[in-house]
Amino acid sequence: MTSRRLLIPLLLLAVLMGCAPQAAPAVIPTVAALPTVTPVTPSATFLPPTWTPSPTPAPSCDQVILGAAQAASRVCADLQVGEACLASQLASAAPRAGAAAPVFTLPGERAPLSIVSRIATRAYDPPSFTWGMVRFQAAANPPGGTDPAQAVAGLIFGQVTLSDAENGSGPFQSLLLQTGPADSGCASAPLPGVLLQSADDRPADLALNGLAVRFQGTILARAEVGVALRVSILNGRAETSATGSRLEAPAGTELYVPLGGADGYTPSGALEIRPLDSGQTGFLPLSALPRVVGVGPAVLPTQAPITPNPVYQTAMPTPTPTLTPVEPFVGTPPAGIQTYQGKRIMPGSTVSGQVPAGGVDRWVFEPVGYGPESFDSFEVTAFGAWDPVLTIESATWGVYQADVNASEGAIEAYIASLAGSGGDWRIVIRDTEGRAGAYTLRYICQGPCQPPTQAVTGPTAAPAS
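RESULT FIELD:
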């Protein structure tokens, strides 16, 4: 009976459970349904923040040319008599008949003149920032000699072809010179030509386009087709007897003869002695020569008689020129922007002047730099045994540097950043002991420069002070 009582509730419970709603069956997720996560491998390299430097400004053409001249004395050091040396890359050398082609591709490479028939240099090339320059050393006296004290140093630059006429007593003693026009790619480049310098005070004999020239010192030769052969005597003296009579040309003059003939390079007119043309002698790479010299003032032949035993003053450039602060001026000028009255020197010019005994000479200029990296550079080369002293004055700010004398010698250099100073400046030149003398002054702007606003010639208003 008891078991029957238990059975009835169990049956009722089973009936109730069968009538209850059934839960949905559980879904077991598959592997494909699970979300996937791609693991990221941590990097073992830490990259710090990067700094991009400001681009280096491209050099100006006058900086390239000045650098080539300065490098020539280094890469062509100890040049032997009878050798040519590539100083700047835009140049080539042609071999003589039957000779191997000279290797002439990198600065400092040399070739014997005995295997070279022609040397050609090229004008400034803006895309590559290069310029043509070759230095050579040819025997002068005696013929075929190898003594450096009896040689002539030569420097070819710009668009020039210099050929050996092969009728001299040694290689490159009889020369055919062909020079191109002014450099269209660089307004401050020297006119193309060849500088020739004798050893010490000994005479050297050469022929230029058939004109026999004996000289002591330093000369510059140019031969423009169908125009003229010009031999400028920068230092020392030269003479020729081409016309049947002996002509002597002192420093500050030039030998001038018209060119013509079938090739346009043959002397075809009367030989003259003229005053030196400063338009022919600007921006010369004189620092590339074995002995650094300056350019004497232009004179008439009767103003400078030939002396039997002339003394040539030479000097080396100042090793450490004075460098003033990068940004010397801030604020408004105390008396406004003013100008100086006087003779004006323009950037890129080389001028000459005279200092009287106990006196001074002055040149006015306008700084043309427009950034702190601009530098106005001056180089004064004195003639004779006197030491130049420079004073730099500003019409706006007054005396800036007094009695600059960085070198006890005939060459004085001064470099300053005068960007943004406004107004005219003046450079005053005198001798430390008050002696009279002559000099040349060269003015170059290095870095970002702009044309001056002042007129090229003529006086300007005097300063108020």
